[in-house]
Specification:
alpha/beta, Thrombin, subunit H, TIM Barrel, 4 domains, 13 helices, 28% strand, 605 residues
């Protein structure tokens, strides 16, 4: 059984502003893209920006991870090492990597195996753990029993995606984008071909389905399964979304903070990995920000109903069905939501998804700026709640570390000890002749009032303990305030100096690699090749990423099965026989079904 770790809520950060919002809302760690070499080319940040995030995060024991999870060509190795060392130098806690060349750079920083390294089996995870990697990020297609089986055979940290978009193909082993053009997911520039519309054809070219989003799966929402994942051995709960805006991050992080805290309260042997209590002035609701009809995907095993053929876009919360249409005015039966001008609505028509805005509300009628294709019976959704987003954007966020103050006094010295929740403490004194307070009740109240304020600091003084039976001095309020200010400033310095624990990567050369490293393992530089060979691999194929063409190659393997999704599973007696093909423009892929493993492959034709 895997050892228990401190528990981490890991949030995405598009930039410095979003990172700090995630921290304020309760994240125990954030992951952020650096200047380059990350799997989201549109989410880059300078080293100076990341340094500021680190400085703020470490006040609360929050860790900062930088994504350097793209594949490297030989010509990029020196630049990758230079950047990694620079990030380590500003205090970044770990790098999330895909390319094995990083393991040979002698980096003084913790390394995590990205989900792009396809961590789907106990053997794969054990190999990375044996090599010295502190953590592995698991494949999103895994079931709870898969996760439990991995945890039972390793003591390395396991990180699991619990919310957001799902890559339909196995992570790091999808070359669909690359086979359609120069853009590659393994190089940080995926064109999201899985979100495109496709035709489904048989061997004779007959179109069985036209212009449907046949590979577009719904988003993941495992918020109701946190307890089971904790018990299975997961230590880090990851929210997808390094391209998402601040409102999304505020909302989703706040929601998961509440869910995780609820489960931790039932498991006193587990604790969260950072400190500080977050206070937000809004009620988090996952349906109010970007959502592709979230579900639990394959957590309970492969199943039907995980895709949305009609649209890859976020439809938001369901409002109800249209009961009346009068020009641009409609009535929505069963709608309990309060609609306001500026709200965004959407609905499906035979020609696809249509979006519109609310111009106003007149009694029970909603006035739209367009009503193309609307008719009675159509389901309507709100994908932009204008009032809610305004509330989130204006909400005050504050994260504070609980602190207690203990006061003792003698006729010649007032001593105050401030202690934060981890036991770090400072002592402040006023040492001079002190006058006894004439009114003990007033003196006690003044001491508590002056010493309990925290102002704009990162602390929240939750209690002030005073020996009420002892000597009570009279001290002017201004002098007490200055004493408190200096003490909390010194406490903040001590807190910042106590950076989160991190282990520098040290390669274990005794780890044994598989005998054969196939092209899907993405070795495209000599250092990565040598890494596998030195760990016992007998043959290393050069990665598909560097291929000139993909004809005849498997460009995607996935647990998602189009036959199963359509109700045409071969194991259940499907009448739809013969080869099937996905077609988009000039791109054509044959579908191959491995019913024994419950996997589907796309083969480039």
């Amino acid at each position: 059984m895997a050892r228990q770790h401190s528990i981490e809520l890991l949030a995405p950060a598009r930039n410095e502003v979003v990172a700090k919002a995630a921290i304020d809302c309760g994240a125990d760690a954030v992951y952020i893209g650096g200047p380059s070499l990350g799997a989201r080319r549109a989410a880059v940040n300078s080293v100076e920006e990341i340094a500021r995030v680190v400085e703020y995060a470490h006040l609360f024991g929050v860790r900062v991870y930088v994504t350097m999870n793209t594949l490297l060509y030989d010509s990029e190795l020196d630049e990758a090492k230079r950047l990694a060392l620079e990030l380590a130098g500003v205090g970044v806690d770990a790098l999330i990597v895909q390319d094995m060349a990083y393991l040979r750079m002698g980096l003084p920083i913790e390394l995590h195996a990205s989900t792009q390294t396809f961590n789907a089996t106990p053997e794969q995870v054990a190999f990375f753990a044996d090599c010295g990697l502190k953590r592995v990020v698991l494949e999103r297609n895994l079931s709870l029993s898969d996760i439990r089986a991995i945890a039972e055979q390793t003591d390395t940290e396991l990180e699991v995606f619990v919310h957001g978009a799902v890559c339909v193909g196995y992570s790091g082993r999808c070359f669909l984008s690359r086979s359609m053009g120069p853009r590659s997911g393994n190089r940080g520039d995926c064109m999201q071909a899985c979100r495109l519309s496709w035709d489904l054809e048989d061997a004779g070219g007959r179109k069985l389905m036209r212009e449907k989003h046949l590979l577009s799966v719904c988003d993941m929402d495992l918020s109701e399964r946190i307890g089971e994942l904790l018990d299975a051995g997961v230590c880090s709960f990851k929210i997808e979304g390094r391209l998402k805006d601040e409102a999304y991050v505020r909302n989703v992080v706040s929601y998961y903070r509440q869910r995780i805290d609820k489960e931790l309260a039932l498991r006193p042997h587990l604790t969260k990995s950072s400190v500080g209590v977050s206070k937000v002035d809004f009620y988090p609701d996952l349906h109010k920000t970007f959502s592709r009809r979230g579900g639990e995907y394959f957590l309970d095993g492969v199943r039907r109903g995980v895709a949305e053929f009609d649209t890859p876009k976020a439809m938001g919360e369901r409002l109800g069905r249209i009961s009346a249409v009068r020009g641009a005015k409609i009535r929505i039966e069963g709608c309990k939501a309060k609609l306001t001008a500026g709200d965004g609505l959407c609905y499906m028509t035979p020609n696809g998804l249509v979006g519109t805005n609310v111009n106003g509300v007149e009694g029970q009628e909603v006035v739209l700026n367009r009503a193309d294709g609307l008719r009675v019976g159509v389901e309507i959704f709100r994908n932009l709640d204008h009032a809610y987003l305004r509330t989130i954007s204006r909400a005050r966020l504050r994260r504070a570390i609980p602190v207690t103050a203990v006061v003792s006094a003698t006729p010649d010295c007032l001593r105050v000890t401030y202690r934060e929740c981890r036991g770090i403490e400072v002592e402040a004194t006023i040492c001079r002749e002190l006058l006894v307070a004439e009114n003990r009740v007033v003196a006690l109240r003044n001491l508590r009032d002056a010493l309990s304020k925290s102002g704009a600091t990162i602390f929240d003084v939750v209690s002030v303990e005073i020996d009420e039976s002892g000597f009570l001095p009279f001290v002017p309020a201004g002098e007490l305030s200055e004493l408190r200010r200096q003490a909390l400033d010194r406490l903040a310095e001590k807190v910042y100096a106590l950076r989160p624990e991190s282990e520098c990567f040290v390669e274990n050369f005794d780890a044994i690699a598989p005998k054969f490293i196939g092209s899907e393992c993405n070795v495209i530089n000599r250092v990565a090749e040598e890494f596998y060979l030195s760990h016992g691999a007998e043959r290393v194929e050069w990665g598909k990423e560097s291929a000139d063409g993909f004809e005849g190659e498997v460009v995607m393997t996935t647990r998602y099965c189009l036959r199963r999704e359509m109700g045409e599973c071969l194991k259940c007696g499907s009448k739809l026989r013969g080869p099937l093909y996905l077609v988009h423009g000039n791109s054509r892929y044959e579908l191959e079904f491995d019913c024994q493993r419950c996997e589907m492959k796309l083969i480039c034709k």
